[in-house]
Amino acid sequence: MFAATDVVEAQQAARSPVSLGVMAGWSTPNGAQAGQLYGRGGQIGVLGEVRMPLSWLAVRVDAGYQSLGGRTAIVTDANGVAVGQMQRSDAMYSAAASVVLRWPGLRTAVQPYALAGGGSYWVRSSAVLPSLLSQSAPQSASMTMRTTGFTAGAGVETPVRRAILFGEVRYQQFGQAPMRFVPVNVGLRLK
Known about the structure:
- InterPro entries: OMP/PagP_B-barrel (IPR011250).
- This protein has helices at 2-14, 32-37; strands at 18-30, 41-51, 57-76, 82-102, 111-129, 139-160, 163-174, 179-190.
- By secondary structure, it is mostly beta strands.
């Protein structure tokens, strides 16, 4: 029994404590405020994870881009007469640092984990407004909001040759309103 444990610990020590990876999935707004303002959209991201001397503890840093869908709204004049449509698109850039907790001593092909941490979120909204005068060109406007918040989630991972395949669900909350999103990702980390 001790020999098998020694072999596993030796294999873990031989691997680099740093792993890099990519992830992709979709993000869904959660709650009344986010649901009214934003739509479901795709997302991509990169991550780096550093394992600590304790086998069940790691620190993960990730950065990502989320498309928050687009919206179309009718624009009216002062008399309530429709004068055109406004096209709006939204995106979010994020950077987060999290603590990752794994089940200590669990030796199964698929392993669960949980993570929680804080991050910085940049939401960018762009809109194209119709021209209100028949002679003028449509107007465009954009706005960026930067705020901090937290992220928490759970996932499962399994080794595949020299990589780790994972899937996870997170909960993100940020801003004063607050805004809430539920991203679902699949990804691959190199060992």
